[in-house]
Amino acid sequence: MAPDVKPIPLTRAVAPFYVGVDLGGTSTKLGVVDDLGRPVCRAEDIPTAVAAGPPNSVEQIAAGVNAMIAQIGLQPTEVARIGLGCPGILDYQAGVMVNPTNFPGWHGFPIRDLLAEHLGMPVVMSNDASAAAYGEMWIGSGRGFRSVVLLTLGTGIGCGAIIHNVIIEGEHGHGTECGHILIDPSPQAPVCSCGKTGHLEAFASATAVVRRARELLAAGKCKAVAERTAAGETLNPRLIAALAEAGDPEALELILDTARYLGYGIVTLLHTFDPSVVLLGGAMTFGGNGSPIGRRFLQRIREEIRERAFPALVEKISIRFAALGGDAGFIGAAGIARMVHRRDRG
Amino acid sequence: MAPDVKPIPLTRAVAPFYVGVDLGGTSTKLGVVDDLGRPVCRAEDIPTAVAAGPPNSVEQIAAGVNAMIAQIGLQPTEVARIGLGCPGILDYQAGVMVNPTNFPGWHGFPIRDLLAEHLGMPVVMSNDASAAAYGEMWIGSGRGFRSVVLLTLGTGIGCGAIIHNVIIEGEHGHGTECGHILIDPSPQAPVCSCGKTGHLEAFASATAVVRRARELLAAGKCKAVAERTAAGETLNPRLIAALAEAGDPEALELILDTARYLGYGIVTLLHTFDPSVVLLGGAMTFGGNGSPIGRRFLQRIREEIRERAFPALVEKISIRFAALGGDAGFIGAAGIARMVHRRDRG
Questions:
Q1: Secondary structure of B148-202 in the HEC alphabet?
Q2: How big is the CA angle at A78 (ends A77 and A79), to the nearest 5 degrees?
Q3: What DSSP letter does each residue of B279-296 carry, written as one string?
Q4: CB distance A308–B186 less than 8 Å?
């Protein structure tokens, strides 16, 4: 995971200000950004009290926003908009989440309007994956581009795409569900979290890497991994990256295979969305730019793309790590709120 | 190929009018449509004099447009805009084609502005695949939807996508180059027209179907195909469809395999663009809705999608044949011109 962004002092910030809220199934991130996208502050994460129901959670989030604003000495009138990034499929007209997976009982609840009412400020809702992509485009690794795809590698694979400054979410909110693009139609392809086979997520998520490692362990391979897990360590991409960095060839192969699979998927993304840049974020970047293993991972992805993509496209595309880490969501939610604010002002 | 659309009489048409020009490497189609998208007339195709250079061709197209308008008794002032659909990558700012494959010497030529000058009317340039998708969305099989993907099955596989009424073309004009999405990463996957392996076009274009049939012939299979080609018939998807319709199981299998491969590709399109409807057009639809073989082809595609796509999406998507045949391009070019005209009017 890339490091979070260092906030700037309020005295150096450029008004107006935007609050970003990144609603997660476990915790919610909050921050204030200035008109140039620079975080002015980042609040402590608020536990999302999913089970306590949305009215309760919205009240806590509103209280968190008010406390955060007060703490840095910002007047509520200096905040132009609140950006609220939410997971899953959204009904933007109604300002509600649609059958959100990890939010039982939240379906159809007027979360946007209730938050606006609590805060006395307009709230702009956005999809969290789109928001993260927007954040990276605004002030992260996608800065300077208007066509950015962000793949978030973790338990699953998330994706946000902005092409020509237009956020792509599709007709039913399933657009850029790129974890579910088909990369291998063979019957022996692994099963995805959605129950179907051959999807990118079944090959290149953290879950998939651990599953492949387990299969190798079961076949008596990956001795180094076996030793470390026998000693009580958890089998996860971080352990695999550590072993690869220590010179274990099997751990490295697991990582480079993952890169190859991601390459397959990105080839398809280039021929559908045609972005300027594809960014890789999330927990599973094997150390990213700061690690030789992360850099080899990225290099292997690029090689696969060169091998597979329409030649004229290969020259034009940049593949790199995301820069904002866990802050991308709230920064992007604030950025989308700013975009709407500026459009409303004309 | 679906039948062309029957023009309506001018007396029943609704002003203003739009001229659509569908520039092809061999011939150029022209037509006039009314404000509801209904063709008022379709001119004889004009041979595109590619080798004679763009000034010459543009002059011929302009003459064709003027003759067509005069023939139906339309005043030039009743034409609000000319829509010009062009193949390949376009520079919309400059109104030029960028390294067009079948148009040597046309790179960078100010085709849009020269046509406007000849006609004394504003010309709106569009990509031909996007225009065809727009035409189908306007008055064809995609009517009533705002998120449409059109796959054009022929020598290659073309694609146009409009999502939430936004035309998707990507940052470099390679967006929706869906013939080149990866559907099979295995080393034995066939080579695509672009030189890379495993792309959809290498499995599901007319070229691919003929190649697979040849491979089967070489292996001593497909006796029925062998007999007909020995008798002088050309091996093409039309022959294969005729044999399948006559009950030949191997010909049918060739068609259903093609459907399966298309299903793989469409699964990916659903998880990237998330349209309401995917339309299949072009020369290779095996008779379309009018033929039992065409209907089985479509059915097999739907089955594969049900088998492979994210379950929540399968319920929402419609897969059907396109309706406008070869007219989709000029109708859509006119439709995009109308969209720009209406935007300009505010």
A1: EEEEEECCCEEEEEEECCEEECCCCCCCCCHHHCECCCCCCCCECCCCCECECHH
A2: 90
A3: EEESS-STTGGGSHHHHH
A4: no
Q: What is the pLDDT of residues B84-121, one digit of tens each?
A: 999 999 999 999 999 998 899 999 999 999 999 999 99
Nearest chain A residue (CA) to B145: A171
List CB contacts of B52: < 8 A, sequence separation 6 or more.
none
**Chain A residues 172-231 with a CB less than 8 Å from chain B:** 172-186, 194-198
Give yes or no for a contact between A161 and A344, defined as CB atoms under 8 angstroms apart.
Answer: no
Residues in A 141-170 with any Cβ partner in B closer than 8 A: 145-147, 163-164, 166, 168-170
Contact B102, B299 (CB under 8 A): no
Helix ranges (H only) for chain A are 54-71, 111-119, 128-139, 201-204, 206-218, 223-230, 237-245, 249-270, 292-308, 311-314, 328-345
Q: Is B49 helix (H, G, I), strand (E, B) or coil?
A: coil
Least CB-CB distance to A310: which of B180, B271, B274? Answer: B180
Q: A with B: how many residue pairs have Cβ under 8 Å apart?
A: 158
Cα distance between the two ends of chain A = 38
Is the preceding omega at residue A185 within 30 degrees of 0, hence cis? no
Distance CA A131, CA A134 (A): 5
Query: Considering only alpha carbons, which residue of chain A is nearest residue B184?
Result: A184
In whole angstroms, give the CA distance from residue A28 to residue B34.
Answer: 53
Q: Scan for tokens 């000034």, then name that residue.
A: B55
Q: What is the DSSP string of A83-136?
A: EEEESSEEETTTTEEES-TT-TT-TT--HHHHHHHHHTS-EEEEEHHHHHHHHH
**Residue A31 three-state SS:** strand
Interface of B with A in 273-302 (CB under 8 A): 273-276
- Residue A14's alpha-carbon distances to A29, A39, A79, in angstroms, are 22, 11, 12
- Token digits of residue A324: 């904002």
Say yes or no to pLDDT of B4 above 80.
no
How far apart, in whole angstroms, are the C-alpha atoms of residue A172 and residue A168? Answer: 11
Cross-strand pairs, B33? B18, B39
Instruction: Report residue A232's pLDDT band, with 50, 70 and 90 as the boundaries.
Output: very high
Rounded-to-10 torsion of CA A309, A314, A318, A320: 40
pLDDT of residue B2: 46
Q: What is the DSSP letter of B88?
A: S
Q: What interface predicted TM-score (ipTM) does this complex get?
A: 0.93
Beta-carbon count within 10 A of A245 CB: 18
